[in-house]
Fold these 3 entries.
Entry 1:
Amino acid sequence: MQHLEMQDISKEFGGIAALRGAAFSARAGEVHALMGENGAGKSTLMKILAGAYDHEGGEIRIGGAAASIHSPQDAIRKGVSVIYQEFSLARHLTVAENILIENLGSAFLVNRRAMEMRAATLLQDMGFAEIDPRGIVGDLPVAFQQVVEICKALSRDCSILVLDEPTAVLTTHEAEKLFALVRRLRDRGVCVIYISHRLDEIFALCDRVTVLKDGATVGTWDTATLTHDSLTRLMIGRELQDFFPPRVAEIGAVALEVRGLAVPPLVRNVSFAVRRGEILGIGGLVGAGRTEVLRAIFGADRRSAGEILLHGQPVTIPHPGAAVRAGIGLLPEDRKQQGVLLDMPILTNAVMTPVNPHLGPMGLLRDRRERGAVQALRDGLRLKAASLDAEAGTLSGGNQQKVALMKWLVSGCDVLLLDEPTRGVDVGAKVEIYRVINELAAGGTAVVMVSSEMLELMGMCDRVLVMRGGGIAGELSGESLTEANIIELAMGRGNVH
Amino acid sequence: MSTETARPGAVALLVKYNIYIMLVALVVASTLLSEHFLTVQNIHNLLRQLAPLALVSIGMLLVVLTGGIDLSVGSVAAIGGMGVAMAMPALPFDGGLALLLCVMGAVLFGAALGAVNGLLVSGFGMASFVATLAMMTMARGLAYMLSNGQPVRFPRDLPTAQILTGFGAKGLPGLGTPWPVVAALAIVLLFIFLLRRTSWGRLTVATGSNETAVRLAGLPVWRFKFLAYTICGGLSALAGIMVTARTAVGTPVTGVGLELDAIAACVIGGALLSGGRGTVTHTMIGVLILGLIGNIMNLMSVPAYPQQIIKGVIIILAVLLQGVGLRANRRV
């Protein structure tokens, strides 16, 4: 019997249908994955369940009874809790105060001891006895903050727990602890709805999968009956091989060489070289020091040792401005916080570089010239936008990433550092980004690409360095570039040096 | 979405042009309420009084665009106004060149105080509220110290002083537009141009929109912030000089509360205090709206205390209207 049933749910935003009669049902005591490309309607459906949006038409039933959910309060009363990527924690309060925050308001006097005991019991129950209920939430690692958020949900007896991309902020080790917690909740009969773009997690954790596409439900399957390929096909209706367009690589002279790079406290003795026209991947776990390496090359973080050579000449790169002038570009890992100006027009974003050849003397803007150049880039990148004056924030994730790339095309860089270029981007847009990267490499750019997605590393890169614990654990290419080898090097299993 | 923007409804129009509508409504209401309002004399007086606020508001806007705030503008204005009043009789020679030296000196000193703010904020990462709060009391203290708490008077017959007071009192030959208004207008146009048509202006706005992204694009964020505070200090000092020119006396109490009017002008003009949004034109409309409210209430002899309440209500109304605008544009 289904614990949660959502039938024929529709929702429109200003005349555009986000959901068209979507259906979703989940049992108590299962982990149920909700999959789909960005814009497929996953978040909208879950926000309706959470009472954040009101739905037009359709019915929600919980535990067999019709549940009218029209506000977040309704949802909480019906036992629905949603853990968003942005936590709703009071950072300056203690763990216990956060977990039992609703009780804080109901009583005039606060019995701190009793609260801390209750919180401690709850944390222990979840297998996180090491979290001190008296600790300040803001001081905890992100993973523990997430546990606090989940305990807060459990303290109000939730029967349906929605996790929206919970591992996006976690390291692999932390993620494993989270999975253990999710399994424990499932065994207690909680209905866990799990949203993630990472296929590995879905297969490791979830019992069933429901796929949404264009606001409608494609279907629900037992995870055991699916493969990576078949699930991806269900989401995009396309073969996996088509992801990685064939590439004509003309590999030239060494463009960037790094010797003995060290970035305290983690990264030490990292050396590699990348040639013109080459795509060099950097794999490894989150926290292995990959981002730090890119940022240090770009001058965004200080390096304590190491030499950087461009086209054979040693360069000093004290700050990002120097990197850009030397011909290095960086696409940061966090697109919205670091990559684009969401409130600014595409045009502004595209020319936001210290090397803007379209400026007149004294920094005077030459609007026509700039527009012409950016317009040409837009066509080349197949950027989908109404106009160059549209704010970057109105674009989809994939198109935002193209906007972030534009400035390096304007400034004309020889070395491009990409940090998780397709994170949080839907499958269709990924293919587009791959195409752009391939074209840049074909034009002679040396590309260094950090990625957590094995398929991406294998499909895109000529060689892959795998990092572990701040150093390079090994290099893979050709025949040896397999998923198993990447994992082995990244995790440190086997006899790899 | 495109269909919506193609057929803007009455509400959308109202929201989009809310401050223009507010300005026109105030002018119409003022004209109807008082026969003294729409006279050349009154308009000239009003604009003459608003010229210093206009300059300070431009400086404030620059700082606000980068995501900061400058509480020290009023105190710096006092120093600027007093500095000129004290320097003019002290110079060994008279005339236009002497005045130019005095004005430049005072403006540079104001800019230096602003540069200290800029250094504390962009170099030492101090919160702008805190850094400029400290500067506000320090500059005010300096103003009182320099003058012993007394107004600084200067000989009226000094040729240098006559040029200055002439600038404050007279206007364009023929039209009679007061000189301070002409000067302020020129500076307004200059900054409209700088913000809209130069890379510096665009990147100053970008800095407030997302500092991290601008820094990771390889741009020297600290320079845009530092310059914003420095220019703000210079413009504040210049505003103080205009007050001295109009009143023919430099006083240490010039510009008390000026920072609040300047912030109000920015906010009424739709600038976001978190940075990244705001224009000189709209800020100037904010200045006019603030000025009109005071002017019409004075003409109708509304006492000073209720005036403050009405001013507050108008600020809230203006911002509420913009809030409606933001929400109407947002998809969810």
Entry 2:
Amino acid sequence: MKQFKWARRVSLVLAAVSLVGAGCSSNQGGGKSVTVIGTWGGDEQKAFLAMVKPWEDQTGNKVKYTGTRDINTVLTTGVASGVLPDLAGLPGPGQMAEFVKAGALKPLDAVLDVATYKSETAPALVALGTVDGKLSGVFIKAAVKGLIWYNPTLHDYSAAPPKTWDELKSQGATNKGNAAAIWCLRLGSGAASGWPGTDWIEDLVLRQAGPDVYNSWWAGKTKWTSAEIKAAFQTYLTDVVANIKDKTEAVDPTKDFSGGGDPLFTSPPGCELFHQASFITGLGAFKGKKAGTDYNFFPFPDVNAQFSGSVEGAGDLFGMFHDTEEAKSLMKYLVTAPAQDIWVKAGGALSANKNAKSYPDDISKRSAELLASAKNFVFDASDLMPKAMNDAFWTAMLKVTKDPSSLDAVLADLDKTQTTAYAP
Amino acid sequence: MTAAPTIVQLPAERASPSRLRRTAGRYGVHVVLALLMLVWLLPTIGLLVNSLRSSGDIATSGWWTSLFPPTGLTLDSYANVLSETDIPSGFINSLFITIPATIIPIFVAAFAAYAFSWMNFPGRNLLFVAVVGLLVVPLQTTFIPILQAFGSIGIAGSFLTVWLAHTGYGLPFAIYLLRNFMGSLPKEVFESAYIDGASPVTAFFRLALPMTIPAIAALAIFQFLFIWNDLLVALIYLGATRPENLPMTVQIANLVNSQGGGWELLGPAAFISMALPLAVFFALQRYFVRGITGGAVKG
Amino acid sequence: MDDRVVTALAVVIGVPAVLVGYIYLTEVVLRLAPDQRRSAIRPWLWLLPALGFLFFFLIFPTILTILRSFQGAVAGAWVGLENYAWFFGSPDALVALRNSLVWVVFLTLFTVGLGLLIAVLVDRVRYESVAKSVIFVPLAISMTAAGVIWRFMFDYQSPGSAQTGTLNGILSAFGAGPISWLQVDTLGLNTIFLIIVMAWMWTGFAMVILSAAPKGISAELLEAARVDGANEWQVFRGIVFPLLLPTIAVVSTTVVITALKAFDIIYVMTNGNFGTQVIASQMIKESFTFGNFGHGSALAVILLLAIIPIMGLNINRFRAQEALR
């Protein structure tokens, strides 16, 4: 009867264990919790947790945050399986629309004071978060794209920044000094390699061909082989790529874009000018340098005078999957100016709320100013395209930067992707 | 008299070339192994040295330059990683996830492997091959239906989900490995046991299991490793609803922000994370260091 | 925290105890069955827990995947073979197929070949543990860390600047120019480099399993062969290798399937750019980045089909093994 001896032994052990367990089970009391998923890690995660701390203190609730760069996988799986966090940073307006269609995202019209939100936020950002007339996503962080960074010790542009593309070309060449090249360029970014190049093209399309072409382009209605888009690529290739130090380095997978501006600070400098978004100030060599003295920026100059006043930006979109009381309260809090001020003070980010003004330095103040006062604010085009098109765009930038002569073939391929990527 | 020198010379002729060959072979073994070990260690040494340098140094000069003065070596990155409050709790979570998920599949697979090796039934080989074939199923294709099922019975986010999931995912390889080992155990041992009237259960616990210890030790190491280093499975099953249960791998990946900033912290974090799996390897390796060639020639 | 410890303890002790109890229980249950039927039913009872897990976690989702591969981007819309036609019609498909094949062939060759060599060699030296641990270390490193390590190895700086990558540093010591290793797509070399990264990690796997291989090899047999004048190579080829063959087959099969599924390395290092795309990474992209599960499922099914020849080889081997027993 060996099996009975076993069974007896096992049940004795289990009984002992459960007695111990009953004796010392701890009491998890106090407050509710809100689960949040986002792409933020490292210092961004710290800033976000600092941002929600006042809310936690005030309500006695807890924010449980999961950061991951695999947000696409997690949210796609979550929406399909029904296991979702309360709030989530959404990958982009396109995915937000898909989640709304799937019935996963809850509308925010009843949660926020929409009128206040609309008055405090740029209309373009409000519109991007709206699906079928219902507000489904809000921006709690923003960035300006297409700033031209430079090192004032090489040449100080702050007094008289170039106002047109031609001025930029000639001034850039004149003031190069002992820099190895006019432009710094780096497209590497892990799984998203190529996106800094897409920012270049978008800035050029916006200012060469205007916002209408820009909008119809990301919507899939203007072909990649069209004259306007091709012209933007050609300007990029002849004026920028031709003036960088090393094409191989620009597209190398091991060289991350975050270090792309480092050559500005070497002596002799590796380059004179660097095109990047406002958040570059928290990355690479920028991080240890002093704003204003070691680095400065001027906005992207006009190319075509009739399209002046447009600014391209991006932002972090947030949505709500479960409308519990705590989640709604947190969402309401996140869009307020005091909340966003906390992150802004930490540096490296711009607020989507116009009233958040605690910028730590002049540089971020000016970037925020650009965002707020833009005559025409457009969102990053590649973020608005369907993912398949976006991915092809990134790859195309790598191909075309490495080998400019392949431009026509690359644009033709992009056209092919365009025909299938946009859902009917 | 001409025969004698031939007889005397023959053994000497045969002995010296083979002894020379054996000596050269012995040195050759050492040279080859030394070379292999150097090549294998080099990448990791590069990471180790770089984990002791500042991010500015890493960007501008090769790690080997820090081997000579001025070295610029600093423990700052390690301090930064350890000061992250999430890492210790992540370590505990990793233990909670890994240990049960290593133990359960071993038992389940051992029973199945024994059935496949020493019990006869129709379709045995076909079924076994189908089980092994399941090795190819990409884990990502299984997430949605499983998560849906877990969610509907309300256990989503608990450790139980990852224990069960890792058991299921690890079974094809575990059964494959154990069956291969059990199947090559000497038939006579089992036959004489059955003749003596032992039941299959007794044969399993008294004979098969003890003789399979090397394979079980190897399996335990791999299962432990794969689960310890796993990020995606834990993220999917725990991340949405119970972030406090996430293992160290997720916390380490999170040392880097969404723009890639802070990646120099991944080096020190990797070494902190590696310590336990290596300790497990050292502890278990004596169970299978029996040698391939019967442990004959040790030089 | 305390109740987590309790749960974990209960699981670690309780579940094996339950399983062991289950096996003993099956014997009791079998007593109820007629004598002749007992040995026919018993295997299925022993297999039941494993089959249960396998069905729920692997088989059932795979059936769903196969069905999904015949539907369009939106679930529920049946499109027949359209997804498969899409894949074989796209120009990138050929590159992905070729690369997947290169992965299968070269990863297995490197990993199993080197693993076998090392397992045999270390057996003959006193520092066996040290050598084995050195080869094993990369397997203990997570994919995130491996990405960083090899980033340092492959790093590229423009010609003329000080090199920061190990490989380019070695090259510059010989006065050769820096190479952007991951961009070299002539002859698919960058794919080979990625394979080397994976082989660096997985050779330890092959080595450990081959070391743990069943050793039906008696020391006397080997000594007798050596005394007879056989050199080490002949001993290996004639005695050791044939007896290791089943384990080599296990290792090779596992590595081949791992090569087919490999996508982490590619995703982390090049994201499939510069001609390094494989079927597995394409599948992940389609399903989770583009959200097109129709395409992704079709690619998963293609992977399933690819292992059929390997499984066929395994069946033949089992049949041969049984015949000898």
Entry 3:
Amino acid sequence: MRSISLYVDKDSLIHKIDPITKLIYTFVSVISPFIIPTILVSSIFVAVNMIILTLGKVFKKVIPIISFVFFIIITIFIIQGMFYGGNSTELFSVFSLTFYVEGLFYALRIALRAINILLTFSIIILTVKPSILIESLVRRGLPPKLGYVMHSVLQIIPMMSSTANTIMDAQKSRGMETEGNLWIRMKAFIPLIGPLVMNSLVSTHERSIALEVRSFSAKTQKTFLNEEKIPAAMKYLRLVIILIFIAIVVWRVVL
Amino acid sequence: MAKISVNDLFFHYNKGTPVLKNINLKLNNSSTAIIGQNGAGKTTLVKLLKSLLKPIAGNIYINELNTKEHSAASLASEIGLVFQNPSDQIFNNNVLEEVKFGPLNLDYDKAKAEELAVESIQRVGMEDMIDENPYDLSLSERKLVTIASILAMDPEIIIFDEPTIGQDYENIKLIKNIIKNEVKDGKLVLTINHDMDFVAELFDRIIVMNRGEVLADGPAEKVFSKRKILEKAHLEPPSVQKLSNDLGIEKTFLTKKDFINYFNSL
Amino acid sequence: MSKVIIKNLSYQYPLGDENALEDISLKINKGDFLGIVGPNKAGKSTLCKSLVGLVPHFYNGDFSGEILIDDLNTKNHSISQISLKVGLVFQNPFNQISGAKLTVYDEVAFGLENIGLPREKMIERIDYYLKLMDIYDQRASNPFEISGGQMQRLAIASIMAREPDVFVLDEPTSQLDPQGSKEVFNAIHKLSQKDLTVIIVSQKMERLAKYTDNILLLNQGRVIDYDKKEKIFARDDLEELGVRPPIYTEIARKMNLKNDKSYYPINRKKLTDLVVKKYGQNFSK
């Protein structure tokens, strides 16, 4: 049973970069195309992100996500191409539907920004181990309780699956059919949900006791079993990223 | 024809790691306890008997019905299993409704189902709590509700999975009586159990499992006298038997009464 | 020297209709190994929860009297503070897995990170206690994907690793087979010999008879008796009070075999000696 996570474990250059640096980069990469909303800037970021994902050996995983969004993007092109407010220059017609240059360019800008956001977040999702990300944030001041809530999402499947299976076995054992048509399977749902939810509520209550008696609420400075080793190079990388961002802002303000 | 017939059973969860090997058993009327350390395969065997799992090789017949050809739900009228943790089973907010669930699944009409439910609730001594919400009851009381739920379905074979865990002395006495009554009514009662004293007192036949195989299968007096086999299975004999071993007595004792009577007759 | 002093402790849960604990007063010495027995609803679990401050701080309700662990009054300190001195392992192991960690190894680290233990010390303790509880081989597994027995050992190891002064365990071996429960009792006994004060609730009378020093007998929230185990198990009203006597004591009682101090033997060795004494060695074979 896997925990919920799209993280892909590979030995790549990108994987070696620490989560905080990646978070800083995410911010810069997502916001910049809005600060300078040109097609050129968006395209540059999209290209850079694709390179990063390729270096991270995870580019293949992004393709299904992009394909899924593809249809929405086509729709944007069609609608903006035909009905964008600033349309004036006709480009081509098909079956008496006219597409204009301005609309298509507008659609291109939106599409590039959307793809850029997807690719940027993919970097974090695919190359950062969630538990490490959460721990990095807690080290730097994220309230541990918030970190715990975020982390608990990862454990939902392992926590629930064995209980769910036992509950299903118990109800089948009492004559409840689970196989058959949709109606039978729906009827079977109720005796499964009840114990699952109740068990979860009771578990959560008792688990919070377990956390208390292990000093989870203590105000002492927490230590960490895992060592966080951030190579000095990272500091330079972060500086470079931040400088690029400042340059972009200045560019926008000045020009 | 035996009530339970296990023929050349082989089972694994993952290929390459056998969990049960070469199991052959015929169970009829003798109350039977399956003992063995954690991981020996007892729970897996019980799940196979209940058709919750299907054999990889071999066959299991419950009252002449092959488990491979019947779903667990359809065999529920023949063979019942009281699960270890009541919380894994209880979902109604009323004891009576909870106990009725089983009989209703067996296609009894509402009136008959209620009749059966009330009767079994009385048998476990919970009639005062019949309208209570099971979630307001203690763990022991909920255990009794789950036992009633299975008794209400009146299966000929009834399996108790670790019935004494977490139960206090009074409750264990109650459960002992329920088991004795089932045996008296001619039901085949099986148990998975770690409590050797409980087992020695109530069960006529013992099956010792170790690493997926049956190490011993026979009357309680015989099996509990086989020290080497019990050692191999990482088990200890019942307390009275340990005493007997220490004293060098060759007789096998199963209960305190046996032991005391022996000395009274000296 | 008293480690735990309980004075007139009474408590009622918020939705309760009667007191779960009624005027309990007793002293537990440092290094004692105490067993708590009684039927269901006797107040055993509630007493355990009081020792670590869950009662009253987590459960609220009506609390009167006081519990002192050394000089620490549980009323005036948070659960986090009390839990530095008092460790609690309770019945359901599944609900004691924190959910904050993805491996058994890290799970034990959780309770140590929270108290700011240095990394090297953490590793030392985790290695030691995982091995003591015989789950070192499972250290890379997800704590929710191990067996019930392994979970129980993990819960115990997680609290042991914090090295509390007082170790409270409420039915800690229910999921374990007899060999497993023997190993756990043995390990705890070893620790108690190093001056650790141990309080254990159990229905396994024979194990209590073997390992404990004293027994506290509770019924309906009250202390019925608190004394050395030989004296408690010698009572002839244990069954009425909802407690099963250890089997060897029962046999001794029915065969009228008392030792020189006029107690019934509580373990097998002593019973054997008395049987041999009375009947010689002539048993028909």
